[in-house]
Design a protein that fits this description.
14 strands; single chain; mainly beta; 3 helices
């Protein structure tokens, strides 16, 4: 497996944007998984725009399969004194694969500061069981770039689970020193939908939209991070879920929401 940095560095300038051949080792079925598509889009944006403030929020719509030769373009929507909004598009040979909007914002002094989403108390990674098959027993795909340990909640297709929710310790096998925000985006979407905990049998899924709001970007993503997902509602072939991620020391990194098509 290649490091995240090595994979991101295959993104190269092309025409008025950037292009990459979708890496098979970071794929999910016939498409890249959403997190690495988002990471490529962010890399295309940051390489096209100098002196951007920190990323605060991003919205993604996954339109079609991200496979084959992918092209990324971006457009500055607004640049203010402290914030910048940039739209990005990902195109495959078949057409639009994804659309995104990134919101960047410089830090400001504020009298308002609180954190009402503390990291829950779960067993440490070294005392938690594996969340999924790893190594030679694992199926090919992007998950093989990560280690996962089930801190709390259910496994996939778990008849004994009380609710569609899990807390999973996760870390990269090798970031290769990739940009921290790029690493954040690729890690935050690496878990399967929480609704899969209560699937009666394995079945396909497809993420439609993903919103991520960033509280803090660590300097490195080499260690363990706790990812949480909970399906709040499912019906008529769709699931609505909440998500969050904390550092190994308990700092809130980001929150998120997704709408997911489920075929179970």
């Amino acid at each position: 497996m290649s490091s995240l940095r090595a994979v991101v560095d295959t993104l190269v300038p092309e025409a008025d944007g950037f292009a990459v051949d979708a890496p098979v080792d970071w794929s999910q079925g016939r498409t890249l998984y959403g997190g690495i598509t988002a990471a490529f889009a962010y890399e295309a944006v940051r390489r096209s725009n100098e002196a951007l403030p920190p990323l605060r929020s991003a919205q993604f719509m996954f339109v079609g399969p991200a496979s084959g030769r992918l092209r990324f373009s971006s457009t500055v929507l607004r640049r203010g004194r402290s914030s910048t909004l940039i739209a990005a598009d990902c195109f495959s040979e078949e057409g639009t694969a994804a659309k995104a909007v990134f919101a960047f914002g410089a830090a400001r002094e504020s009298k308002v500061a609180h954190n009402l989403l503390p990291m829950p108390a779960v067993p440490a990674p070294d005392t938690s069981p594996s969340f999924r098959k790893e190594g030679a027993a694992a199926r090919p795909g992007f998950w093989n770039n990560f280690e996962t340990r089930l801190g709390a909640g259910g496994r996939l297709v778990d008849e004994t689970a009380d609710r569609p929710e899990f807390f999973v310790w996760t870390r990269y096998l090798d970031t290769g020193g990739a940009d921290p925000t790029t690493s954040l985006l690729a890690l935050a979407d690496c878990m399967p939908p929480a609704a899969m905990v209560v699937f009666p049998a394995p079945a396909p899924i497809s993420t439609i939209t993903w919103t991520i709001d960033i509280a803090h970007v660590p300097q490195s993503f080499d260690g363990w991070h706790l990812l949480w997902s909970e399906s709040e509602q499912a019906g008529q072939g769709y699931s609505l879920q909440n998500m969050a991620m904390w550092s190994g020391t308990g700092e809130l990194i980001c929150t998120g929401r997704q709408t997911i098509a489920i075929f179970a």
